[in-house]
Amino acid sequence: MDEFAGKVAVVTGAASGIGRALAERWAGLDMKLALADIEAEPLDEVAEALRAGGTDVLAVPTDVSDGDQVDAFARATLDEYGAMHLLCNNAGVGGGGPMWTLTEADWRWVLGVNLWGVIHGIRAFVPHLVAQGEGYVVNTASVAGLSSPPMLGPYNASKHAVVTISETLRAELGMLADGDFGVTVVCPGWVRTRIADSERNRPDELRNPETEDSPSRDEVAGALDSALETGMEPEELAEMVEQAVRDERLYVLTVDDWTPMLRERLETFVAEVDPPGAAAGASSPD
Ligand code: NAI
Fold first, then answer.
1. Could you report the per-residue pLDDT of 179-209, keeping only the tens digit for each?
2. Are 50 and 72 contacting, i.e. CB atoms less than 8 angstroms apart?
């Protein structure tokens, strides 16, 4: 994709972090924006700030885990602009703990936002891209979609799914006889955002009773917070995403430090040997 001005970019999770930085990036290329987020007030603030800079912005409070709401967001986008060209399925939440301590609600919440949010985005928007014969999809996964860090079971599962969905979508769009399509899957390491505070957006019906909260969950959130501090700025990532979209490149990986781990993972996989730390009891002190 090399022409951006006047085209329409859709961004979910646009009220904070990476989504906000992507929205600002596309605005800087004179695109029109359709922004969604579950947090209505911060979404409005982002929209107002962008409008003040002269960008056309449609802001629709949307829970991406709810298919009807995503359908309504797609309809509102098409009613407003008559077309859309660049879809960024970005909204996501983090959290976890040892998998055997997690509740069904924990799994439903993370998979609902991170996996079903992407599925709904594809289902609601991509038919329009196909019909108009051009379009680009950016899905935000994570380096956790290419590896299996402990304490993040549902998150890892959701992000692995987003990687394979992106790869499959790219192959399927490539099989169309006509049209100009692209897909990028963003697999960042740590980025300085509010993701460690994801619980703020957990719907009441998927909250755990107070008594069920295990200290390990708080420990995971605390560890996540410290790790994020070491990360890159979302604006830097958004710049990398723009370049990948211009190059029509499938993968965005952000940190060279992860490369040896990813290489080792692939090598152990094809050699059918366990990756380090995979054996049960491997990290046990006795
Ligand atoms: P963030 O918490 O700053 O932003 C996430 C946005 O998604 C928030 O505005 C939040 O309100 C929104 N959101 C949450 N649940 C939603 C729902 N059900 N429907 C609609 N919007 C919802 O976090 P961040 O880091 O900017 O997250 C963006 C994406 O980046 C996520 O998919 C995350 O998994 C991914 N990511 C983040 C990394 C990091 O280190 N921060 C690393 C790798 C991937």
1. 999 999 999 999 999 999 999 999 999 999 8
2. no
